[in-house]
Amino acid sequence: MQPQTTVVLAEASTPVEREVIAQWLAADGLELGPGGRAPIQLELAVDDIVDKLVSRSDDPNVVPVRVLWLPKERDGVRRSSIRDLATLSNPRNPHRLAQKWIVKRSPDRHRVLTGEPALLSELRARHLEASGDPAPRSLARYIVRSAVLALARAERSVIGDRYKVPRLVVEEILDTPAFQKQLNDIADRTDISRDDAYDRAEDALRELVATQSRLVSDLFSQAMAPIHKRAWTVHSDETGLEDLRKLNRKYPLVFLPSHRSYVDAFVLGDVLAQNDFPPNHLIGGANLNFWPIGSIARKTGTVFIRRSFGEDEIYKAVVEEYFAYLLAKRFNMEWYFEGGRTRTGKLRPPKYGLLNYLAQAVRSGRVDDALLVPVSITYERLNELGAIAEEQLGGKKKAEGLAWMAQYIRNQQNSAGHVYVRIGSPLSARDRLTAHGDVMASSGEAPDEARSRLAVQKVAFEVAVGINRITPIAANALVTLALLGVRGRALTIPEIQAILDPVLKYIEERKIPQGELQVLRDRLGLIGVLTRLADAKVVTSYTAGEQPVYSIEPGQHLIAAFYRNSAIHWFVNRSLLELSILTAADSDSTDPLAEGWAEAMRLRDLLKFEFFFPDRKGFALEMENEVLLVDPEWRNRTPTPAELLDKLTATGFIMVHRTLRSFLDAQLVVVERLALRDPNKEIDREEFLDECVRVGQQMLLQARLHSPESVSSELFTSALKLAENRNLVKPGGSELSTRRAEFAEELRSLSARIDRAESLDASNRKV
Questions:
Q1: Class of residue 129 by CB neighbours under 10 A (exposed 0-12, middle 13-18, buried 19+)
Q2: Which intervals hold domain Phospholipid/glycerol acyltransferase (predicted)?
Q3: Counting Cβ atoms within 10 Å, is residue 330 exposed (0-12), middle (13-18) or buried (19+)?
């Protein structure tokens, strides 16, 4: 039996690389053994493969080969450094003279890689199965892509998954028969030529596809690291990351972080890099695609998507295909599913656009599954909140650009304490979509667009709940919670401690995640937190009297509320319980406790655009657990509402006026403005929200609102969504005016009940 022929496909761009590969082959680098036939060496190029490989009548073993160049080892890690720029050469892709020097003087910095071999017949069969195109040139392009991917896998076995980067993406997508058919269908439907459709798709792909560079990734991360490392000390919980890394070998991971700062991506990227995860493809808005950051960011894996596609069917098809491609190739992704940074500090309602693309890839069978990973990023302090607060008062967001970025970097020069990164349990996209009624193509059922849309919304909700579940309470959140709940009064250190102590006990009882809260139990630790908030101009102190007193700095209530709101979701159920007990205590019903439970459900519906509640059954269970914290024996007896109220006040704190009042006050402003509108006329949303901000400021000056944090375009927007959900916005005649006025009165009654709850709080009793 004749020894099998081996064809080496050498990816070499310089004479030095060709010589290194030739010497390696001559030294039997392939280990062909005694009597093995000398391999045939070809260039890894389409023309060479067409002329000298695909037309062969035998069945050679095809082995891709190339030279791997490595940076110097620094602190036990081989990575490019900004100092490498001085050599005017990329250490991972050095120029010819640098290659000669490395081969002669630093042989540990290069080696020959071999990709997984395959028989020519196997490659031909795979290509036919994938494309159905028997043309030699089509097969040659497929062999090139297969060789590049095999060499990339071999390279990662040496340098680790951190440097997993895609190559030849545009070419591979454009060669996909199904995508070509889709482009042809669009061309026929929109009356453009097929060549024009293909050219526009190629242009869109080259605009969209992230062309990752290991050198740029290394240098960019080093250049940007000081922006956040100087400002924050990162605390990450790495529990479960090893299991997540194992799952990543089979499924792509889609990281969905909460979005509070422009540095979120750098903070999370560092945590993942330190744990040897490959870089994420970060999906970003085109607003950040400005020179030179845009071109640099694309080389580190950022994908810039247009804010609006309009009627551009080709661009939409390209985005959908690129998403499916990345997921099918198991490239990890990351985006901020809230659609932008939170303006209030709590999670915003999710946007579904990108999740719809992911769901379609899973639903159609393009991807077996993808794992959705909730990520919480919580900052003890943020230096960019001034602009965010200004936007809530109707100010326009400043356009991103070089001047904006320079100012942003300057703002990060001061220490801002801790940032907490928590990574939640992954959710199987396929399992969760199916559980919510989505129809998979493999089931044979007819697709149902309405069910699919609802399933995506429910999955997004589960991700949001997952983020909230792992978000820790930071020290600044509790201190601002205390100071925002006393109607502008200044508090002494003992008074602040008296507010915080029972809340800290509650946090311990519920086993809520914490971030360095132990400092608040100590007088000096609490003073340190207050001092740092004072340095940030959020808190003001007066020290000329008998003892220092602290309050929220005038004009900084929105910023203080941002810190408080990062933890507010942990106290919503407690707040609803307080209002429900007061409702029961005031009820003339024969079953006041049932009236209290009904009030809890009504409040859940009232706040559904602000917070993420479980279904009614899950919510009832959560509320029962809240009652047990107030009265551990309530299941063994039937307490009166008065008894429950006594036990509630005995816990030492009341929460509702600190957590929900600003949201309900904002709802009142919106509904009162609606009640004054002609019910027969359409409402211009932007003009109406501007009016709410202006009138809200007036009501605040008249003491008709309780706190400046209620005057927020973000809160008014959510309140308007609630009004739309209750059919109070669209024109409707005189009956609409009646319903608007009734809802306004309902909110006023609720505000009065919150006033009563506030009077029961220990911090307000003497006042």
A1: exposed
A2: 253-380
A3: middle
The CATH superfamily label for domain 204-470 reads Glycerol-3-phosphate (1)-acyltransferase (3.40.1130.10)
Q: Cα angle at 520 between 226 and 712, to 5 degrees?
A: 70
Q: Burial code of 431-453, b = ≥16 C-beta within 10 A, e = fewer?
A: ebbbebebbeeeeeeeeeeeebe
| Beta-ladder partners of 237 | 422
Domain 473-566 top-level CATH class: mainly alpha
Write out 593-604 in H/E/C secondary structure: HHHHHHHHHHHH
Name the residue among 528, 517, 531, 421 with its Cα closest to residue 475: 517
Residue 727: CB atoms within 10 Å = 10
Q: What's the DSSP call for residue 428? A: E
**H/E/C letters for each residue in 577-645?**
HHHHHHHHHHCCCCCHHHHHHHHHHHHHHHCCCCCCCCCHHHHHHHHHHHHHHHCCCHHHCCCCHHHHH
Length of the chain: 767
Q: H-helix or E-strand containing 686?
A: helix 685-701
Inter-CA distances, 196 with 178, 190, 207, Å: 17, 11, 16
Judge residue 732's burial from the number of C-beta atoms within 10 Å of its C-beta, 0-12 exposed, 13-18 middle, 19 or more buried: middle
**Encoding tokens for residue 600?**
């809890």
- Give the tens place of pLDDT for each residue, 609-664: 999 999 999 999 999 999 999 999 888 888 888 999 999 999 999 999 999 999 99
- What are the phi and psi torsion angles at 515 (to 5°)? -125, 100
Q: pLDDT digits over 142-191, tens only?
A: 999 899 888 888 887 777 655 555 667 888 888 888 899 999 999 999 99
Q: For 68, phi and psi rounded to 5 degrees?
A: -100, 120
- Both tokens of 212, joined, read 């990752």
Per-domain boundaries in the chain: 6-159, 204-470, 473-566, 570-651, 659-765
Tell me, yes or no, if the pTM score tops 0.70: yes
Tokens standing for residue 345: 């500090």
Cα(541)–Cα(534) distance, integer angstroms: 7
Per-residue tokens: 442: 């493999």
Amino acid at 263: V
Q: Taking the chain, what is the end-to-end CA distance rounded to the nearest angstrom? A: 101
